[in-house]
Design brief:
Elements: E1 14-19, E2 30-45, H1 53-65, E3 67-77, H2 83-101, E4 108-115, H3 122-133, H4 141-147, E5 156-164, E6 167-181, E7 186-194, H5 200-213, E8 229-234, H6 250-270, E9 278-286, H7 289-300, H8 303-310, H9 316-324, E10 336-339, E11 342-346, E12 349-350, H10 355-362, E13 367-372, E14 378-385, H11 389-396
Parallel strand pairs: 3-4, 7-8, 9-13
Antiparallel strand pairs: 1-2, 2-3, 2-8, 5-6, 6-7, 9-14, 10-11, 10-13, 11-12
Helix pairs in contact: 2-3, 5-6, 7-9
Length: 400
């Protein structure tokens, strides 16, 4: 069951808050998320070789303990490419948050997003963390969601509930992301909470699989950020028996977990900088799911495909060409292509079709492109958006 207006504090035992500390000119820029008890935790992080201090520190921290109780996030400053001082500032963010919440430092994770190469304004950040710790509440999910935004035009939150061992288990999530979005990961932060009791190893494996199928299948502009991460906390307060892969209700929980991540991933893609619509590319009939995923990402990431969608131009040749340079082997002479319900190509060749009807499909939201390879039974979906004039306008003046 999807929880109306749900978010990261919908699961039992989670508090959150967000406020304006002065890192950005006006909007909220510091957020805290806390579990009232230590939680099993897992994370996935950017594959960019240039990584912010918070990414490296969180990854090392989770490898050592596999537990978290709080996450501190700032927006407006990525604290990336800031040298030794950036490392010290990320450590201080963790220490200051731990002190403000009365927690052990190793139970606090740090996330930052914003401009690269600028030193963190620590006086403002320290004051913001202290103030935010005093206003944490079950009702604070929305404030937290606002505090993590950069060029996003909207917050991205969701929550679902399922019954496990006769107990209601809730999974909540929040994300930010609008530009520098590209597999693998994106300029995105996502935080998932659950009151389920989950075995730490199973939680880690579930997050890795889910990320491959959701966050790693979105693209806006082909840029991968220095700060991307997804963190999950499972505090066990729902009272269910410990979940792992052999539990009878594991698949039910895993499906709900994927729903949250897929919803957040699609919201990020839909909110791409300057975008007017969500684009879903479904690749069917592949020999393997991995091949289908790679081809789908190649198509949804093509600038020519994205501009054709923006212009509502049924240029199916761009779709087939993008599949062709994906690096995956397939027979182009077997490929069928559909725009919505309209088949525009069969066996790698064009078909007569109603141009006006196809234009109407591409003018809608979302736009679904289906590519059938006709070589197997596996499929995968990737998500993106159209590429518009506003994307250039927004990014031409990002720092100013």
């Amino acid at each position: 069951m999807v929880v109306e207006q749900g978010g990261v504090t919908t699961p039992l035992g989670f508090l959150a808050g967000g406020l304006h500390a002065g890192i950005k000119k006006k909007r909220k820029d510091v957020g805290l998320l806390q579990s009232i008890v230590p939680a099993a935790a897992a994370g996935v992080f950017t594959l960019n070789k240039v990584r912010a201090a918070c990414v490296t520190q969180n990854e090392q921290q989770l490898l050592l303990s596999g537990r978290l109780q709080a996450i501190v996030v700032n927006s407006g400053n990525a604290n990336a490419c800031t040298g030794r001082q950036g490392d010290l500032d990320a450590q201080e963010m963790r220490a200051h948050t731990a002190k403000a919440l009365g927690l052990q430092e190793e139970l606090v994770a740090v996330a930052s997003t914003g401009v690269i190469g600028v030193q963190m304004p620590m006086d403002a950040l320290r004051a913001g963390i202290t103030a935010c710790a005093e206003v944490l509440a079950m009702e604070g999910s929305g404030d937290f969601a606002q505090a993590i935004l950069t060029t996003d035009t909207c917050t991205k939150e969701t929550a679902v509930q399922v019954v496990v061992d006769g107990q209601t288990v809730t999974i909540g999530g929040v994300a930010k992301g609008s530009g520098m979005i590209h597999p693998n990961m994106a300029t995105m932060l996502a935080f998932v909470t659950t009151d389920a009791a989950v075995e730490p190893g199973a939680l880690k494996r579930l997050l890795a699989r889910t990320t491959d199928q959701t966050y790693n299948r979105i693209t806006v502009d082909g840029d991968t950020s220095t700060n991307d991460m997804v963190l999950v906390m499972a505090n066990g307060l729902a009272g269910n028996d410990l979940l792992e892969e052999t539990h009878p209700d594991w698949q039910l929980f895993a499906d709900a977990f994927r729903y949250v991540s897929e919803k957040l991933a699609k919201d990020i893609a839909r909110d791409g900088e300057g975008a007017t619509k969500l684009v879903e590319v479904i690749v069917k009939g592949a020999a393997t799911e991995a091949k289908a995923g790679i081809i789908a990402k190649s198509i949804v990431g093509s600038s020519l495909v994205k501009t054709a969608v923006f212009g509502a131009d049924a240029n199916w040749g761009r779709i087939l060409a993008a599949a062709g340079y994906s690096g995956e082997d397939f027979n182009p002479a077997l490929v069928d292509i559909r725009l919505g319900d309209i088949q525009v190509a069969q066996g790698g060749m064009g078909l007569p079709f109603d141009e006006e009807a196809a234009k109407e499909v591409l003018a809608g939201d979302p736009v679904t492109i289906t590519v059938h390879l006709n070589e197997g039974a596996e499929s995968a979906t990737a998500y993106g958006c159209d590429l518009t004039y506003d994307y250039v306008r927004i990014n031409a003046s990002y720092r100013t």
